[in-house]
Amino acid sequence: MSEQPHHPSAHPRAVKAVVPAAGLATRFLPATKAVPKELFPVVDKPVLEYIVGEAASAGLKDVLLITGKGKTSMVDHFDRRPDAEARLEAKGDLVRLAAVRRSEELADIYACRQHEPLGLGHAVGCAESHVGNQPFAVLLADEFTDEGDPLLSQMLDLQAQTGGIVLAFIEVPWEEVSRYGVASVEPTGTEDVVRVTGLVEKPARDEAPSNLIVVGRYVLPPTIFEAIRKTEPGAGGEIQLTDAMVRLMNEGTPVHGIIFRRIRHDTGQPLGYLQALVRLASQREDIGPELRAWLKEFVESELV
Ligand code: G1P
Predict the structure, then answer these.
(1) How far is the CA of 1 from the centre of ligand 1 (A)?
(2) pLDDT at residue 32 above 70?
(3) Which of 89, 116, 225, 295 has CB atoms 3.0–4.6 Å from 128's, for a disulfide?
């Protein structure tokens, strides 16, 4: 097995992405009673479009959404809307027309249902017949990187070299580790690429092997499906993807991680969602300058 990200690929590079998005998003209730949180707008694009855009930019043009009750509108978002296009064309709003068309052409979108909320591992298991016997990426639907960030591409390249599991990690304050999957790692000799020696889902703070947490990007070999089938419910009574990965690791599958040090937008809870919204809106050419000026005035005012 090669440890060097620059070696030629020994295995096929993944071409499919799976986006588990079946949950009710209780942290956003009551907003998520009728609207999936994946469709919450970040300026004028829903979160899910950023996720699918990230997959497409890394070469994953086949995207399977794992949906659940009341979440069919996520699939509708990627449909053509000839009526909306005609209206924009008639108004001469070519910028917005291009944005609408882009959302329709980003990727081939497929959907399948997770009938019961049995956990992330179970949700990924629902993708088996669509993915088949090839490596694939999993993108959790509430976090995304900046446009053009190479993380997912680097993960796909690394997985094509190792044939194993590739994860991405960030360092968090120790008091947050129990909310995540946590890894123990050792260096590989390549900067920011580590070999994973242990993984544990939502450990108590004093049992966590490190403060390196698994972020919502995974590149997995198809053997994960059998491992998921054999995995018993774990943390929170759910079938955990982390536990299925540990099973494969114990059977000899190589597991690597890339330490991620750039911006990660985490829209999975209200504060992170607002931060993503403000950050991305501030970077926009059209509304950014005015928003930044207003924000400055607002935080300096006595109204805060
Ligand atoms: C899931 C994974 C966890 C990972 C996290 C990243 O947890 O189970 O290992 O660290 O996503 O956001 P969840 O957020 O579904 O509880």
Answers:
(1) 28
(2) yes
(3) 225
The pLDDT of residue 6 is 52
Q: Is residue 81 part of a domain?
A: yes
Domain span including residue 270:
16-283+290-302
Task: Domain count for the chain, please give it.
Answer: 1
99 within domain boundaries: yes
Closest atom of ligand 1 to 235 CA is 8
As a whole number of angstroms, the distance between CA 238 and CA 25 comes to: 16
> Is the sign of the CA dihedral 226, 246, 197, 201 positive or negative?
positive
- pLDDT at site 3: 47
Residue 29 is given by DSSP the state T
**Best mutation site among 172, 178, 180 for ligand 1, i.e. most ligand atoms within 8 A of its Cβ?**
180
Question: 198-213 pLDDT, tens per residue?
Answer: 999 999 999 999 999 9
- 154 CB within 6 A, ligand 1: no
Residue nearest to atom 14 of ligand 1 (CA): 180
C-beta of 242 in contact with ligand 1 (< 6 A): yes
Q: Say which CATH number the domain at 140 has.
A: 3.90.550.10
In a domain, 10, yes or no: no
Asked whether residue 53 is domain-assigned, the answer is yes
